[in-house]
Structure formats: C-alpha cells, structure tokens
Amino acid sequence: MAIRGGAPRRTYTWITAHAPWSAWAWRNTAFTVAAIPAALPVLLGLTATVMAPGPGTIPPLLILLLGSLLTRLQRSRFRTLLDLDVPEVERQGGRFTPLAVARRLRSEATWRQYGYHLLVSPLAAVAGALVVLAWTFGTAATCVYAWIWILPDDTRTPGWTNDYDAVTVGGVLLLLAAPWLAALFARLDSVAAAALLGPNRARELERRVEDLAESRAGVLDAADLERRRIERDLHDGAQQRLVALAMNLGIARATLTDLPAEAKAVIDEAHREAKEAIEELNNLVRGLHPAVLEDRGLDAALSGVAARAPFPVELTVDIGQRPGATVEAVAYFVVSETLANVAKHARADRCRVHVVRGPAAEGSTRGGDLLRITVTDDGVGGADPARGTGLVGLRKRVGSVDGTIMIESPLGGPTVITVELPCGL
Question: Distance between the two ends of the chain, CA-based, in angstroms?
Fold first, then answer.
C-alpha cells in the first residue's frame, strides 16, 4: 500500500523507523545489553570485596590495574554499537614506568574514569538487565494465548479469557516501551561516558585556546618575516634600480646639452618621475617594515615618523627592554597610522606621543607586561571608527595581537587614543 502526502508519509516513516522490529530499536537494545558483560569484572570485584570475611584489598587493586583495559572496552562498545567516538585522554610518559603510573593515579581524568567504572557501569548493567526483562516479559505476555492453547482444556479456569486479554495488552505495551527504555538508557550512558571517560571539556577548551594562541602567534611572526623579506627585496632590488635610473637621467641632462628642447623636456620629465617613484617606494618600504625598526628599535623608528609629520610632535619612548618583533611592528603601525589620521582629519596644531612599557594602567581590563601607547592631539575631535577615518584598520591591527584600543574624542577635542599591546606575544 502506497502512502501519499507529506505529513502522513513522514508519520509512517517515523513509526516504522522506531518500531520494536526496527534497526534503531535493536541497536539501542544491543548497546544496553552489552553493558552487562562489560561490567562483570567490576561487579565480581565489588561482590568479592563485600562478601570477603576480612578487609580484602586484592579486588580493588585488580579494578585499579584493569582501569585502562575497562576504559578501552567501554570505548569499543560505544564506537561499535552506537557509532559514538569517546575521545581518549592523552597520556604523558611511558605506560608502565613508575613515574607514569604515579602521574596517572594523580590525574583527575583517571579518577573520573574509575568513577564511571565503579558507579555508572554497574548501573548500566542493571539497566541492560531491565531491558532484557522488558523484552522477555513483553514477548511472553503478548504470546500468552499461544501458551494457553498448548495446555489441555481441563486446565483452563472459567473466565480465563478476560484475564489473558489484559495480559496480552500489557505485553504489547511493554514491547512498544522496551525500545524507548533502551534508547533512554543508551542516552544516559552516552552522556555519562562523554563526561567521565573522555577528556575534561573545560581543560580541553583551555588547551585548544592555547594551541590557537600559539598558532596565531606563529602566523603573525610569519607575516612579519614576509613583510621584512618584501621590504629587503624592494630596497635591494627595485629601489636601487630606480636610483641608478635617476642618476643616469641626471647625468644625461647635465652632459647632453646639445639635444633639442623636446628631448631635454622628455629627459627632465623622466628624471622627475624617477625621483617621485623613489619617494613613493621609500614610503611603501617604511610602511611595510622600516629597516631602522629592526636595526635600532622602536625609539629610532618613531623618531623618524615624528620628524616627517606636518606638525610638531612631542615623542616620549620609555620601554627599557625591547618587546617582540611583532609587537614592535604593530606599535610602529599604530603611531604611524594615528599621526596620518591626525594630519588628514584632526586639523591639529600639536600632537603628543607617549610609549611606555610596564603594568596595565588603573582601570584597564588587561594585566601583565604591556606596551602602552598614548597619542593625544589638540584637534577638532569627533573621531569615529564608523566614519571611515582609518580607525577600523587600526582596531583590526591591534586586535591581531590581542591588544586593546580606547578612543576618547569628544567634539571640539582633544582626542586621546590609548593602545595596550601584550609584550608576551
């Protein structure tokens, strides 16, 4: 019989997928019942400990020694019967060395696994026994008429059909409930296994955060090295060729005096274009990674930026020990981009740049060793990252090294930009 229509077809599919004879029902039943043999070593050890005439220590010691084997057995049960992969806890050191055993006994993950074997595993075995009983009694009660018809007629009591009608209905209901009971026990067992047999989720997240921080630091260092390589190639290659071209054009303009006026004009234009190209290339190289930053540090590099500003800049640099190359590059970019924004938008007469290395300022949410940059100008204020003033790129560059930026720019000024960069990167 074909089932047509969207909702009736989905209902029919759902019923057949969750019927007592479905693969879903048998899979959950097999998984729940498999907890019984997996818990037998623990049940036998606990029974021997309770029934021993004196204080016995051998069964508990056997359970401790068999902990790893029981854990692998339970993981295999989850993976084979439920397609659930419980992650394995990473072990440090050898498996059977005294130091490794002592470290394992002190580990929080080890005692969580013993908690599963001593508490959850026996309860899972009891749940498996209940599922077996549900299937057994449900089947027996559903087939009660078949059993009765086998008996001789003289053994049947008057009114027996009324009693066995109720038994049959109860058996059918028990057969319908058995798969859901097995699914409930399988779900509870899976939750307990994920919490106790696998790694601690909070510590796993901490480890992943540390790994991501290390990988990000590696990417930033690689990007900084690539910028240095590009700067070096431009400085030693294209820039030197342009300088040589400008010199040759200058010599030609000075020595070839008998050329026509049109030719002299072309040489003059080419010479001027070559000098402008050299200047643009110099600015590009300084924006990538200035050589003075790597050779002489942040103080000398920022002094050059302040000297090229179109307004007076009061620069103070007090950093003591140099931070990492990546932090230095970000700090240079912050000051350079901020001064460029001040020149374009602030209409300021003066600017003050203060760079210091030390603990975080009072009220700051950051801690540890920080490189704090404060840029103050007396301009018109009103700086807003949403208005495309270059502050968006500045915020992204600072965030790339897990730094923070605070902008105070009321209308009428002054504007104060404070950046804190972690020196531990």
Answer: 69
The token pair that represents 27 in the structure block: 């899979």
Give the pair of three-digit tokens for residue 373: 């940059």
Q: Which residue has the higher pLDDT, 33 or 20?
A: 33
CA distances from 144 to 149, 164, 304 (A): 9, 7, 98
Sheet bearing 351-358, strands edge to edge: 313-318, 351-358, 370-377, 415-422, 404-408
The span from the CA of 335 to the CA of 341, in Å, is 10
Query: How many angstroms separate the Cα of 36 from the Cα of each of 224, 321, 409?
Result: 59, 65, 70
For the chain, give the percent of residues with pLDDT over 70: 70
Q: How far is CA 48 from the centre of its chain?
A: 46
Tokens (6 digits) for 294 = 């790597």
Predicted TM-score (pTM) of the model is: 0.48
What residues contact 284, with CB distance under 8 A and at least 6 apart? 234
Rounded to whole angstroms, the Cα distance separating 163 from 181 reads 26
Provide the pairing of β-strand 370-377 with 415-422. Answer: antiparallel
pLDDT, tens only, 360-403: 655 555 556 788 989 998 888 877 776 655 677 788 778 877 88
Give the Cα separation of 324 and 422 in Å (integer): 10
Cα–Cα distance between 252 and 250 in angstroms, integer? Answer: 5
The DSSP call for residue 235 is I
What would the two tokens of residue 364 be?
A: 């700051």
- Is residue 378 within 8 A of residue 350, CB to CB? The reply is yes
Name the one residue in this structure whose structure tokens are 């720019």.
Answer: 409
* Token pair in block for residue 276: 């402008």
Helix axes 261-288, 201-233, angle to 10 degrees: 160
- Do 285 and 231 contact (CB within 8 A), yes or no? yes
**Token pair 């050059």: residue:** 304
